[in-house]
C-alpha cells in the first residue's frame, strides 16, 4: 500500500511541473516584462530607469554572465551556448536624465529560462513572492484566507456528497416510478440555472425579502454558522442537481449487473441489495466523480466568497483578476492545481481500498 | 471598410451555417442509425418542445445576424435592431409597462409609456430587446467554441488512440497537464492573457473544453482499432488516413454529437460566470451574463430593479434547459448501449 | 407439507410478458411442466425461446419493470409461489429453490470476498455467524476447491471461471435447497471444465436428493444428465418426454431439426442439416403454429389452427398437427420424412453427443 501510494505521488510530479511551465508561459511568456512593469508602475509614463528598477526588484532583470556562472543551472545554460543580453552601455555622465536612450527590455532566452527555473522552484517551495499591485506578501495572504475557504469549501463538498448520494440512492430505489421521473427532471431544472443566478437571486430572496439573518461577512467563533448557512446552501443547490443525476446512473448501471441477480436469487432483500451490494460497487465511480467536482468547488468559492464577503482565497482571486494581478492569479492557479492533483492521488488510494481488483504492485 | 468586415461577409456567415446544418441533416437522414434516432425523437414530446425552443432562440439569433450598414449612422443595423427601431431609448430604468422612469429623484415621463414589456435598463434600453440580443451571443459562444474544440479534440484523440506509443504519450501528457488545472482557473488565466473579445473567450473556452472530448475520442478509437472490420480493412491495404476518416470517425460521430449538444448548455452558463468575474464579453455586445452581473447593484436599489435579472436569467434558463432536455433525448435515441 | 406422491414443483400455464416499444413480447407463453423429487428436468431450445425467462419466473426475478408474470401457477410443495408476498418469496429464494447462472465471471460481486458472499447467503436465512463460517469452509471443500481456507479470503477476480462456477454452486447449495435451477451453467466454460461441473452437480444431487431444473441449448448435456426433457420453442413447450424416449424417437419437426443439426458418427462426410431461419421476434409470434415458417412439413392448417399441447392421438405432448388425427388432410409423416430428412438421424446420437458435448451446440 505504501509503495503504491509513493508511486502514485511520483506520477503526479511531471504533471505538476508541466502545469508550472504552462502557467509561466501563459502569464509571463506571452506578455513582455516591460508591459507588466508598465501596467504595475503607478506613474502614467514611467521613465526607463523606473522600469529597469521595477524589473530588477520583481526578478525580471537581465542576468550578467558573472551571475550566471555562480549557479549550476546558469553554467549549464552557458555551456549550451545560451547567453544573456549584453548589459546596456552606461549612459555618459551629464546627459543622463534628459537624453534618455531607449533601452531594449526584450528579455533574452537565458533570462527567461532562469526566471522559469527560479519561479518554478519558488512555487514548489510556496514562495509566491509579492503581489504585483499591492506589494502584499502572497504567502501571508494565503495563510490568512485559507481557513475561511477551507471551512466553506469542505462544508459544501461533504453536504453535496451526502445529499447527492442519498437522493440518488432513493431515486434508484424508486426507479421507473413517478418519484424517479419527477426527481430526475427536477435535477435537470436545478442544473439549468446559472450558478451566478443562484448566488444573486437566493441572497436577495433570503437576505432582503425573508430577512434571514446576516448574509454578508464572516466571523470567527460561535457566530460563524449564521454566516455559513446561506452560502453553503447556495453552493450545494447549484451543484447537486448534476451530481444526483450522475450518481443515479451509477447506481442503475450496477443494478443491471449479474451479481445483483445472484444476490436476489440468494434471497437478499431489495434494501440490502442496494445498500450492501450495489452501493459498494457504485462507490468506485462515485469517488472519481467527486474528486472531479473539486474544480466546481473552486468555481463556487470564487463566486460565493466574493458575493458574501467571505475573506477567503476565492475572494482574493477575484480581486486579483479585477486588478490584473498576474503574480497572485498564478499563485492561486498553482494552489488550485495542487489541491486537485492531491485529490486525484487520494482518489487512486481510495480506489485501492474499495476495489480489490486494483493491483497494488 | 475592408472585405472581412463588409456587409457581405457579415451576412454570408449565418447563410453558410444554415446551409451546413441543412446539409448535415439531410445527409444524416440517409443513415439508418440517424433515421431511427430522428424517429425516436419524433415520438418524444418533451424533446420536440425542447427542439422548438432551441429553434425559436436560433431564429432570434439569426434575425440579429442579418443586417446592413445604415447610411446615416454608418453602423450596421441588424433585422432585430430594425424590428425594435420603433422603441425609443429612454433616460434610465423603468418598470415593465410603466409610464414613468424609476430610480430618479424626479421620475420623468417615458417617451414610449407602457410599451416596454420587460421595462428598461440603466441607460434606457428596452430589456426585452437586450434579452433578444443575448441569444446571438449565446449561440456564438456555444457554436464557435464547439467549432474550435471539437476538431482539435477529434484529431488529437484519434492520433493518440490509433497510433499509440510516443504520440499517445505526448498527447496524454498534454491533456493531463491541462486537465489538472481546475477549469475555471485555466479559463481565467487564458482570458486574462488572450483578452476579452468574443472570439478570444471562445478560444479560451475551447482550450478548456477539448480535453474531455479528446479523452472520449481516444477511448473510442482504441476500441474500434481492435475491431475486426478495422483489422480487415487494414489487411486489405487501406491507408491510415482513409481508415480514420472513413471507418473510425463515422462510428464515433454519434457520441461526439451527443457530447457537443450537452456541452452547449455548459458553455452558455460559463458566459455568465465570466461576466460575473469581470472578464466576460464587452458590455456593448448584449449578453445575458452582463445583464445578470448588472443586477448585483440593481437588487440593492430602492425600489428594487428586478426585471433585468429576471429577463436575462429566465431567457438563459429556458435555453439551457432546452439543450439539456434535447441532449438527453438525443443520447437516449442514439446511444447504442441503451438500445435493445 | 406435500404428500409423497405429489410432484415437488409444478408449473402450470405460465405466461411472462415484457412491455417493449414494439409491443408486448410474450417471452413465456403458456408453459407447463413438472419436476419430480430427486429428478433432473432439462429444458432445451435455441437462445430467445424463453427458457431462461421461465427459470427466472419461478423465482420471480424477471427484470422489472418491463417484465411481469401475466398468468399461471407455480406450485411448489403444494403452495402457489405466485400467491406469496414479496417477503415470503424472499425466504423461498436461496433456501428452498436456489439458482446458478450462465456467467460465472460476472455473477459474483467483485468487491466482496468469496467467504463473505457464502456467509451472506446462509445468514439471511437464519444461520449464525460461526456456523456459517464453518459450513462455508465445508462447502468450498465439497465443490472441489483446492485450498478452501484461502479461497474464503479471496476475491472473485482471483479465481478462474471454473472455480467461480464452483463457488456459485457452493453458494446455491449453502442452505440445502430442494430445487436447484441451473441456467446454462457450463456454457461460458471450457469443454473439460464443463464436464467437471456437470459431474459435480450430479454427485451433489445424489447426495442430497434435490431436484435439478437444467436449462441448456446443448442436447449433449441433456443426454448426459436429464431424466426428462422439455423442448421449448418461441415461448412454448413443443414437446416433452423422458430423455430416453425423446432421443430414441423425436417427434416434433423442431426437435427433429435440432437432432439433424448435430454431427453424428454414421453420417461422417455428409453435410450437416441446419435449421433454416431464426426464432421470430417475441412481439410477433406466428398466428397458429409458431414453428410453421421454418418447418419443412408445413401444411395449410399450420397457419390457421393453433396446435394443441397434447393431441388426442398422441401418447405424449407434441405440439404439432402431424400427430393430431382431427386435423383434416394432414400430411403423411412417413412420406415427408423420406423427402426431407435423409438417413437415420438418431441412432447413435446419445453416445456421440455425450462424448463431444461442445459439438452438440445448437443455434448459438
Low-confidence stretches of chain B: none
Q: How many strand segments of chain B? A: 2
> Major beta sheet of chain A, specifics?
none
Distance between the first and last residues' Cα of chain A: 8 Å
The secondary-structure element order of chain B is HHHEEHHHHHHHHH
> Unreliable stretches of chain A, pLDDT < 50, 5 or more residues?
none
**So what's the overall shape of chain A?**
globular
Overall shape of chain B = elongated
Order of strands, main sheet of chain B, comes to 1-2
Q: Give the integer mean of the pLDDT values of chain A.
A: 81
SSE order of chain A, one letter for each helix or strand = HHHHHHHHHHHHHHH
Structural class of chain A: mainly alpha
Proportion of residues in helical segments of chain A: over 70%
Number of helices of chain A: 15
Helix content of chain B: 55-70%
Oligomerization status of the protein chains: heterotrimer
Q: Greatest contact pair? A: A-B, 48 and 41 residues
User: Strand-residue fraction of chain A?
Assistant: under 5%
- State the helix count of chain B: 12
Rounded Rg of chain A: 27 Å
Structural descriptors:
heterotrimer; A: 361 residues; mainly alpha; 0% strand; globular; B: 340 residues; two-stranded antiparallel sheet; 12 helices; 2% strand; elongated
Amino acid at each position: 500500500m505504501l509503495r503504491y501510494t509513493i508511486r502514485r505521488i511520483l506520477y503526479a510530479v511531471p504533471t505538476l511541473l508541466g502545469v508550472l511551465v504552462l502557467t509561466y508561459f501563459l502569464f509571463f511568456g506571452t506578455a513582455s516584462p516591460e508591459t507588466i512593469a508598465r501596467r504595475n508602475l503607478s506613474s502614467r509614463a514611467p521613465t526607463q530607469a523606473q522600469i529597469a528598477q521595477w524589473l530588477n526588484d520583481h526578478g525580471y532583470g537581465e542576468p550578467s554572465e558573472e551571475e550566471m556562472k555562480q549557479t549550476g543551472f546558469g553554467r549549464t545554460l552557458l555551456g549550451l551556448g545560451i547567453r544573456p543580453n549584453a548589459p546596456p552601455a552606461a549612459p555618459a555622465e551629464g546627459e543622463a536624465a534628459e537624453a534618455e536612450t531607449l533601452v531594449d527590455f526584450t528579455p533574452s532566452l537565458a533570462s527567461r529560462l532562469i526566471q522559469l527555473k527560479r519561479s518554478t522552484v519558488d512555487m514548489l517551495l510556496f514562495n509566491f513572492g509579492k503581489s504585483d499591485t499591492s506589494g502584499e506578501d502572497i504567502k501571508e495572504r494565503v495563510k490568512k484566507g485559507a481557513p475561511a475557504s477551507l471551512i466553506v469549501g469542505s462544508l459544501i463538498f461533504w453536504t453535496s456528497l451526502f445529499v447527492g448520494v442519498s437522493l440518488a440512492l432513493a431515486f434508484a430505489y424508486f426507479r421507473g416510478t413517478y418519484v424517479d421521473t419527477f426527481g430526475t427532471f427536477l435535477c435537470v431544472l436545478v442544473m439549468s440555472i446559472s450558478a451566478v443566478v443562484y448566488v444573486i437571486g437566493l441572497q436577495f430572496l433570503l437576505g432582503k425579502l425573508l430577512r434571514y439573518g446576516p448574509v454578508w461577512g464572516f466571523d470567527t467563533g460561535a457566530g460563524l454558522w449564521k454566516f455559513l448557512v446561506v452560502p453553503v446552501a447556495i453552493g450545494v443547490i447549484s451543484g447537486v442537481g448534476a451530481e444526483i443525476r450522475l450518481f443515479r446512473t451509477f447506481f442503475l448501471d450496477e443494478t443491471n449487473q449479474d451479481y445483483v441477480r445472484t444476490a436476489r436469487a440468494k434471497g437478499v432483500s431489495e434494501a440490502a441489495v442496494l445498500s450492501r451490494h450495489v452501493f459498494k460497487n457504485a462507490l468506485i465511480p462515485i469517488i472519481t466523480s467527486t474528486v472531479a467536482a473539486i474544480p466546481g468547488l473552486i468555481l463556487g468559492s470564487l463566486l460565493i466568497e466574493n458575493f458574501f464577503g467571505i475573506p477567503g482565497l476565492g475572494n482574493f482571486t477575484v480581486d486579483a483578476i479585477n486588478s490584473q494581478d498576474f503574480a497572485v492569479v498564478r499563485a492561486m492557479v498553482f494552489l488550485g492545481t495542487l489541491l486537485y492533483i492531491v485529490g486525484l492521488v487520494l482518489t487512486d488510494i481510495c480506489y485501492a481500498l474499495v476495489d480489490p481488483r486494483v493491483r497494488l504492485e | 471598410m475592408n472585405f472581412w468586415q463588409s456587409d457581405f461577409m457579415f451576412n454570408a456567415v449565418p447563410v453558410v451555417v444554415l446551409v451546413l446544418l441543412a446539409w448535415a441533416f439531410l445527409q444524416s437522414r440517409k443513415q439508418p442509425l440517424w433515421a431511427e434516432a430522428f424517429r425516436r425523437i419524433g415520438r418524444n414530446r418533451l424533446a420536440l418542445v425542447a427542439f422548438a425552443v432551441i429553434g425559436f432562440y436560433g431564429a432570434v439569433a439569426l434575425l440579429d445576424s442579418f443586417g446592413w450598414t445604415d447610411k446615416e449612422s454608418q453602423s450596421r443595423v441588424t433585422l432585430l435592431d430594425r424590428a425594435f427601431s420603433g422603441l425609443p431609448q429612454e433616460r434610465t430604468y423603468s418598470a415593465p409597462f410603466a409610464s414613468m422612469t424609476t430610480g430618479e429623484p424626479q421620475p420623468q415621463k417615458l417617451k414610449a409609456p407602457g410599451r416596454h414589456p420587460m421595462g428598461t435598463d440603466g441607460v434606457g434600453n428596452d430589456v426585452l430587446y437586450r434579452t433578444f440580443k443575448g441569444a446571438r451571443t449565446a449561440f456564438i459562444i456555444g457554436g464557435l467554441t464547439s467549432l474550435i474544440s471539437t476538431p482539435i479534440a477529434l484529431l488529437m484523440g484519434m492520433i493518440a488512440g490509433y497510433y499509440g506509443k510516443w504520440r499517445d504519450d505526448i498527447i496524454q501528457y498534454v491533456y493531463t497537464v491541462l486537465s489538472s488545472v481546475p477549469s475555471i482557473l485555466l479559463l481565467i488565466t487564458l482570458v486574462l492573457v488572450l483578452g476579452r473579445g468574443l472570439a478570444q473567450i471562445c478560444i479560451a473556452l475551447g482550450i478548456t473544453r477539448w480535453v474531455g472530448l479528446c479523452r472520449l475520442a481516444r477511448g473510442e478509437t482504441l476500441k474500434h482499432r481492435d475491431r475486426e472490420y478495422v483489422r480487415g480493412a487494414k489487411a486489405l491495404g487501406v491507408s491510415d488516413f482513409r481508415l480514420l476518416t472513413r471507418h473510425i470517425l463515422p462510428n464515433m460521430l454519434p457520441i461526439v454529437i451527443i457530447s457537443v449538444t450537452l456541452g452547449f448548455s455548459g458553455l452558455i452558463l460559463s458566459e455568465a460566470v465570466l461576466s460575473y468575474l469581470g472578464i466576460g464579453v464587452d458590455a456593448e455586445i448584449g449578453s445575458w451574463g452582463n445583464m445578470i452581473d448588472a443586477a448585483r447593484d440593481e437588487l440593492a436599489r430602492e425600489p428594487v430593479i428586478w426585471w433585468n435579472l429576471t429577463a436575462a436569467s429566465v431567457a438563459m434558463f429556458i435555453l439551457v434547459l432546452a439543450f439539456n432536455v434535447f441532449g438527453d433525448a438525443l443520447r437516449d435515441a442514439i446511444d447504442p448501449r441503451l438500445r435493445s | 407439507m406435500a404428500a409423497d406422491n405429489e410432484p415437488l414443483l409444478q408449473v402450470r400455464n405460465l405466461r411472462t410478458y415484457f412491455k417493449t416499444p414494439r409491443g408486448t413480447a410474450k417471452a413465456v407463453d403458456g408453459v407447463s411442466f413438472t419436476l419430480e423429487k430427486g429428478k433432473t428436468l432439462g429444458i432445451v431450445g435455441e437462445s430467445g425461446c424463453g427458457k431462461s425467462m421461465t427459470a427466472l419466473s419461478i423465482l420471480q426475478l424477471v427484470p422489472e419493470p418491463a417484465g411481469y408474470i401475466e398468468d399461471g401457477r407455480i406450485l411448489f410443495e403444494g403452495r402457489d409461489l405466485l400467491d406469496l408476498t414479496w417477503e415470503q418469496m424472499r425466504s423461498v429464494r436461496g433456501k428452498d429453490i436456489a439458482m446458478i447462472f450462465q456467467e460465472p465471471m460476472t455473477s459474483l460481486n467483485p468487491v466482496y470476498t468469496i467467504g463473505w458472499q457464502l456467509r451472506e447467503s446462509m445468514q439471511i436465512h437464519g444461520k449464525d455467524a460461526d456456523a456459517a463460517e464453518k459450513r462455508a469452509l465445508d462447502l468450498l471443500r465439497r465443490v472441489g476447491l483446492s485450498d478452501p481456507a484461502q479461497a474464503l479470503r479471496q476475491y472473485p477476480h482471483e479465481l478462474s471461471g471454473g472455480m467461480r462456477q464452483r463457488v456459485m454452486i457452493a453458494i446455491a447449495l449453502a442452505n440445502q435447497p430442494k430445487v436447484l435451477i441451473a441456467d446454462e451453467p457450463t456454457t461460458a466454460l471450457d469443454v473439460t471444465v464443463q464436464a467437471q461441473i456437470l459431474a459435480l452437480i450430479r454427485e451433489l444431487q445424489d447426495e442430497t436428493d434435490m431436484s435439478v431444473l437444467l436449462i441448456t441449448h446443448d442436447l449433449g448435456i441433456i443426454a448426459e444428465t436429464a431424466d426428462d426433457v422439455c423442448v421449448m420453442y418461441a415461448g412454448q413447450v413443443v414437446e416433452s418426454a423422458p430423455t430416453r424416449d425423446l432421443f430414441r424417437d423425436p417427434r416434433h419437426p423442431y426437435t427433429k431439426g435440432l437432432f439433424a443439426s448435430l454431427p453424428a458418427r454414421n453420417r461422417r462426410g455428409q453435410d450437416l442439416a441446419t435449421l433454416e431461419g431464426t426464432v421470430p421476434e417475441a412481439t410477433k409470434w406466428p398466428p397458429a403454429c409458431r414453428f410453421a415458417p421454418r418447418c419443412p412439413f408445413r401444411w395449410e392448417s399450420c397457419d390457421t389452427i393453433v396446435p394443441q399441447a397434447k393431441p388426442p392421438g398422441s401418447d405424449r405432448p407434441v405440439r404439432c398437427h402431424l400427430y393430431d388425427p382431427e386435423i383434416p388432410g394432414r400430411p403423411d409423416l412417413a412420406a415427408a420424412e423420406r423427402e426431407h430428412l435423409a438417413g437415420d438421424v438418431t441412432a447413435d446420437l446419445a453416445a456421440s453427443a455425450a462424448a463431444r458435448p461442445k459439438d452438440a451446440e445448437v443455434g448459438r
